[in-house]
Amino acid sequence: MTETTELTGLVVDQELGRGAFTTVHRAQRGNATYAIKRPNPDNASDPGLLFAFQREAALLACVDDPSVPRILAAGRHEGVPALVLEYIPGGSLADRLTHGPLTPDQAVELAAQLARGLAAVHRVGLVHRDVKPGNIMLSPDGTAKLIDFGLALLGADPETDKDRAVGTFLYTSPEQSGMLKRPVDGRSDLYSLGVVLFECLTGHVPFEADDVGQLLRLHLTAPIPALPDGDPALTAIVTRLLAKDPDDRYPDAAALLTALRACPGGDTAGAAAVTRWPISGREAEQEGLADRWRRARTGRGGVAVIRGAAGAGRTRLAEEAAALVTDAPVLRAACQEDEALPLAPLRNAVEDYLRSVALLPGAARAEAEQHVRDAATVAGPALVARLSGRLAELLGDAAHATGEARDDHLFAAVATFLAELARRSHAMMLICDDAHWLDQGSREVLARLLPDLPRLPLLLLLTERDGAGTPTGVPADLELDCAPLDHAAVEALVASRLPGNVVPADLTAHVAARTDGSPSRWSPTCCGCSTPACSPRSGEPGASTWPARTRCPPPPTSAPCSPPGWPPSPTATGTSWSPRRWPVPGSAPRR
Questions:
Q1: What is the pTM (predicted TM-score) of this model?
Q2: In CATH, what is the architecture of 283-482?
Q3: Annotated catalytic residue, options 46, 95, 105, 130
Q4: Using H for helix, E for strand and C for coil, what is the string for 375-404?
Q5: Domain coordinates in residue numbering, the chain
């Protein structure tokens, strides 16, 4: 980064909040009121702070949700790194809780707003890592806003994420504290939200200790304290959010939002969460998959294959197909190169499905589990129980019949089990992602399944990468090719990632050239040099604080994006800040 914007004309007055490293003040510029975040005096000379502020601004400019404050500018104010944000009148949730717990209805409304906000944050690949009452602002109109993304993690790289134990330990998940060796993803934020909800309902956090080590052990091993007598659905939600193992929590914020609708005041959770980016340039492929799924539901199953180069969006297109399935099982078999364990993709697909079934509400869970038992009974419970520990546990005594079985018997039994599960569920989709890496055993299972597909309500969806592994050779009645996107589709893709902005032609050209028209190779955090995805070059401020990653070439020299009425026309280029200029590198404001 060679240009630093001076944020001029701001009159700083009342202090709004103070943390270990930064302080937030209210600021006026003309008739407008802002919040300005600056380092505490002891940290003001840190050369990495300007980059950290620019990073935070660039990341949050891609998040479009009322529960996340708008970022307006990043640069220097009176020579000190600063971040200008939307001003939120009112106080924090921590302030509110000093007056007593919330009612269940209030807690549900708060959780619903934050769930939608977290869904938008997680969609761009961020993990907040510091969800706590002090970082939740309550505006006078009742909107809850999640603030302070200074600790936000972009992606999860276990080899380079060396400072995992960050955040406020009273609210930190076992995996984020390092007590549980699991990746830190969006489910860690859901755990922290569970602690917040527990405190909202009881007036205190679930685990407290004077010793930090003891506190972390409590989060890892201690049972969840009892909640006050109240609505069972809300109690179950908080209990599940506080599960020690992230696999036992809600898989994402959208699933939490769905569960909240069954609670008192659940109508406030009615608006859906946005969890995926819009897909661009694949309308014909989407329609083809939708039509093939409609036919499969009527008992005319078959095979669809999605082919394309690395980064062409094969997996994303498969996920769009999975989203069509609202009332039937979706089994996802993710294939790995050089997988040594026979049937590993199918084992994991069944395990993941049974894990999701175990989290369904009572009646739906009982029905789905019975379908699994019935399918296993037809296939041979002792054989199919070898596929999955969870399946063996569900089948109980039937899984323990003695007898030696050859592998070919197991392959046939698994094929029968999948076919019967599709029949008894009245429809099913089996996705094999990166099927060119399928192990031989899984290929044998699919070969035994193929003859019956035309008479089954089952769609087998395969994705294969051009020039990789060994193609399955499975005959398909729908073949889709993820060709590179044309210019219009790239433009639509970029615009969808930067909501509310007009995207200039040079940025579209830059992204198209960088990705060769393959949409999965680009994200908004890879257009400017202010995020870990495109970390600063050697010698720039903050370069030593980020792990080495693949870096983009310099983006276009013009402002990356300009919303209508905001042309990049500063009074003195690179030296002053104007409401008509967007000085955050790689980002733009939302309308």
A1: 0.71
A2: 3-Layer(aba) Sandwich (3.40)
A3: 130
A4: HHHHHCHHHHHHHCHHHHHHHHHHHHCCCC
A5: 1-87+507-591, 91-269, 283-482
